[in-house]
Amino acid sequence: MNGRQFSVVICVYTEERWEDILAAVDSVRNQSRPAREILLVVDHNERLLARLTERFTDEEEVRVLANAGPRGLSSGRNTGIAVSRTEFVAFLDDDAVAERDWLRYLASGYDDPRVMAVGGRTLPAWASGRRPDWFPEEFDWVVGCTYRGLPPGRVRVRNVLGGNASFRRTAFDAAGGFATGIGRDGDRRPLGCEETELCIRLSQVLPDAVLLIDDRAVIHHKVPAVRERFGYFRTRTYAEGLSKALVSRSVGAGKGLEAERRYTTRVLPTGVVRGLRDALLGRPGGAGRAGAIVAGVAIAAGGYVRAAVRARGGGATFSSGPIPSLPEETPGRATAAPEVAA
Question: Rounded to an integer, what distance in angstroms lies between the CA atom of residue 316 and that of residue 239?
């Protein structure tokens, strides 16, 4: 494990998260297992690019880059992969902080050479200081966090969760990068599933590949007040349905919905029963949680159907492809990488 070096990619897009970005960088700097480099990839925001470049000019371990591809999280991640200089690449959300042993636990998962990806556990840091009574833990993926239904410990999974994940570089050599046209574009398109599509594609290319989640590799992800409201819950679950349809189109419905079938037939019904039981016992939010689960399933299904119909008519596209190798550049300066196809 001692010889494994990590590049940590943090994709950023807005100055409104300035303090969050600095906190994310500091959490990586303070790791018990130091990263070789921290790559800040700025998504088509010249002011933020200039400000971060000035802030980190004299700090060799931090490099500031311009997203070289189309706007969006997938292209930002691909830009980071392209310029990274290590055998392992980890990803951290720009509004999250990693616990001190985050990288140490991610690294320990690669003892088996078959392991191509290792993810961790993401806990919500609610702006209000507490989980809204109506918000079911089964839907914590709505706010980018680990949700009820995932098995505990270090376990083999179909896909890791993108805001707290790492990959062996050879995974990208084999499968290419993150697909564009699926993932999030700042706050404008709350889509997702780009890591799901990549992981399924990776397993198709390398059938013996092992993907793990180790729940000791913990990060804390900020949940702003607007995302504690049902309006965001509704928008995000609908977008998830859209994204799942695109993933199914890419890798087939069998693989694309394999984990979701168990989730919707076992995890969610149990959550509804739990919520109704809490309501009968007079516990706050029980009926709301049960109702949110039912609504979330229905809304996501609506998004899936709409996207599937559009896809059959040629209305939805995305691309995938290899990550190019790039020459090294001067540390601490903003760099524009050539265009990257996801």
Answer: 13
